[in-house]
């Protein structure tokens, strides 16, 4: 039995309207994308600039110039061996095959600087330069750098070379990962999109309240109320 038909119908109408709008928002009506994809891309574009730490990583390499390091990198496939060999030789390192592993010996600063140059190109969406440099798909190159630096960091820490391990860690988290994740995304200052950002935040709050009040009105109209 409906206690208050007017309130119940108001809630029901709001509830139905919520799902109609939801269907529209999930349709590709925002430059060929649904709202979630559109907003995800927008916030990625805005956040890209704040994720640019490559100069900070490079700046710290001056203290490690001519410092030799050695570590092993595991490569399971022939194409990985070929790619890693080209990458580390480009950094002036010596690469020696050892079963499934490659023994790397070289200058710490030169190795990381070479990786940072690739990250810089990828961050600027110039993946063709990286691909041409090694004859491999550009994302695969960054993936190999990250896996190799993880192995290097582990070996540095194992040998109590914690400062060197930190350099490899910073290169991974502050340069390689952002360059990989933001590749293909254009960087846009938030001041150029502040109106859209404000509208999206306000819209999110209003849309959430819309759903909540539709449920509230239906239940109250039905005669169900909270009592203290």
Oligomer: single chain
In percent terms, what proportion of residues is strand? 5-15%
Strand order in the sheet with the most strands? 1-3-2
Mean pLDDT: 89
- Supply the number of structural domains: 2
What's the helix-strand series?
Answer: HHHEHEEHHHHH
Shape: elongated
Number of helices: 9
User: Helix/strand-derived class?
Assistant: mainly alpha
Helix content: 55-70%
Q: How far from one another are the termini?
A: 23 Å
Runs with pLDDT <50, length 5+?
none
Largest sheet: 3 strands, antiparallel
Radius of gyration: 27 Å
Number of strands: 3
Overview features:
elongated, 9 helices, 228 residues, 2 domains, mainly alpha
Question: Can you offer a commentary on this structure?
Answer:
The protein is mostly helical and 228 residues long. It has two domains: 5-48 and 189-222; 63-181, no CATH class. The chain is built from nine helices and three strands. Helix 4 (78-90) packs across helix 7 (138-158), helix 5 packs antiparallel against helix 7 (138-158) and helix 5 (108-123) packs parallel to helix 8 (162-181). The model has no long low-confidence stretch (mean pLDDT 89).
């Amino acid at each position: 039995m409906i206690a208050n038909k007017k309130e119940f119908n108001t809630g029901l109408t709001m509830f139905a309207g919520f799902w109609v709008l939801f269907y529209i928002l999930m349709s590709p009506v925002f430059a060929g994308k649904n709202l979630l994809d559109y907003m995800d891309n927008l916030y990625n574009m805005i956040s890209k600039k704040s994720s640019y730490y490559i100069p900070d990583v490079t700046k710290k390499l001056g203290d490690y110039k001519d410092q030799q390091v050695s570590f092993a990198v595991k490569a399971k496939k022939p194409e990985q061996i070929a790619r890693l060999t080209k990458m580390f030789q480009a950094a002036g390192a010596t690469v020696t095959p050892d079963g499934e592993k490659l023994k790397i010996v070289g200058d710490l600063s030169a190795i990381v600087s070479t990786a940072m140059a690739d990250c810089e190109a990828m961050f600027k969406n110039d993946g063709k330069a990286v691909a041409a440099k090694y004859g491999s798909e550009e994302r695969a190159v960054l993936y190999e750098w990250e896996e190799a630096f993880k192995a290097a960091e582990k070996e540095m820490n194992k040998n109590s070379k914690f400062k060197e391990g930190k350099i490899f860690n910073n290169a991974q988290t502050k340069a390689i990962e952002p360059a990989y994740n933001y590749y293909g995304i254009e960087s846009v200052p938030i001041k150029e999109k502040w109106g859209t950002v404000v509208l999206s935040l306000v819209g999110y709050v209003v849309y959430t309240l819309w759903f909540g009040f539709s449920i509230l009105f239906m239940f109250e109209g039905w005669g169900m109320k909270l009592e203290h």
